[in-house]
Amino acid sequence: MQARQALASRLGIIWQADPSLNYWGDAELGLYITEGLRTWSALTEPWNADYVFTPTSARVWYDVSADSTSPRFRTVTDANIYTLMEYHLLEPPTGATWSGTSQFSISDLSGALQRRRDEIIQMTGCNLAALPPIASTPNTRRTAFPDTVLEPRRARFVPDSGSGNPITLNREDNLAWDGFAPTHVQVSGTPGNWGVIAGPPLSMDVDIAPNVAGYFDVLALQSGLSFNPPAATLLGIPDDWSWVAKWGALADLLGRDSEATDRPRADYCLGRYMDGLKIMQASNWLLLATINGVPCDTPSVREMDGFSPEWQNNPGAFPSLVTAGLDLIAPCPVTGAAPTSVSCVLNGNAPVPLLNGDFVQCSRDVFDVILDYAQVLASFKMGGAEFLSTKDLEKNFAMAALAANKRLVNMGIYADLLHSEGKRQTKVQPK
Predict the structure, then answer these.
(1) 121 and 236 belong to one structural domain
(2) Which partner from 101, 118, 315, 403 sits 20 to 30 angstroms from 234, CA to CA?
(3) Over the stretch 373-411, which tens digit does the pLDDT of each residue have?
(4) Of 235, 222, 292, which is closest to residue 110 (Cα–Cα)?
(5) Number of domain units in the chain
(6) DSSP sequence for 333-347
(7) Residues 119 and 246 in one domain
(8) Is 417 among the domain residues?
(9) How far is CA 37 from CA 33, 43, 231, 362, 419, in A?
(10) Whole-model pTM over 0.90
(11) Is residue 259 part of a domain?
């Protein structure tokens, strides 16, 4: 409550706004402080937290964003973002319903948000999943994916029991197969490579058609859930980056040719969106891991496949926490003496105050610049000179984040390596 009062005081002093909060409601100010905390978290990654879980031999991959005990558990819905957008647009804050002017509609907000959300997922790879087994057809080289797949990232061929051993396929392309194995189309057997570059969308080719029944075990980048207002749907990207989708959607809404056109603010929103995308692509999410209380390496799945082939079926594989990309991990070994306890240090969500007595969990110098940025957010709906006058406050926020990052780097011997552990898959296999 004191944080909201401090923000209200700032707004009243600078613009002689109504101290009774008729223009900025109490709930609205709380949302701006929350976004300030999440933006600070995205820029500086300060809220590291432990995550402990017990794996089972029946499961390989674990999505840390889907576990309610995880510090990276995703909670933000499209309705949450609609409410923020409605405040920014001076419309009634009714979430996933619409009672505002004819300038916009809930379908406008939903369509713009879903377009930008899907673009963020594709650009940053923030919605990876292990697909259910995809049946392979003997003597057929092409396999179709579900329409929720944006991009396959890894594939294994698993023959039916008694028909052979699983094999992790190398990602290549059809031209390589034609050049180095020109008879691959005429034969069948055990595939060794897969590719998508020469096939139609939502499909995968293998170099050699399987001669036995089985299935493909695939890791893929998934599309987000379809928004369906007035029902609230999970946004599908990390909570601390939800503001990126918001700015992208606002850029579309204010930049179209209609009575709602506002080119200066549309350009501002687009700039914030593009900056957010770049920062998100360079962000980290995993720092350290232990298995059964012993520190372990966190190799990418590409590295693990290269140095320990078929580690998923090898009970003697070296203990590791394999990372496939953002929020998707696999404790190793999976079979045999499987780990009884896995602990990792994750870059957690910003702690958001929910009750009036909750503390804003940041240092006092950071609290001041978060209020600076919350003030910028609050002024957005004013537009014009009033909004432009907050440029220095936004600059203060950005410069404070830059200084915090420099300070954090100097506080550790191997800080550069520590803050890149979660990016190893992207480094060895760029999107």
Answers:
(1) yes
(2) 101
(3) 999 999 999 999 999 999 999 999 999 999 999 888 888
(4) 235
(5) 4
(6) --SSS--S-EEEEEE
(7) yes
(8) yes
(9) 6, 10, 26, 9, 20
(10) yes
(11) yes
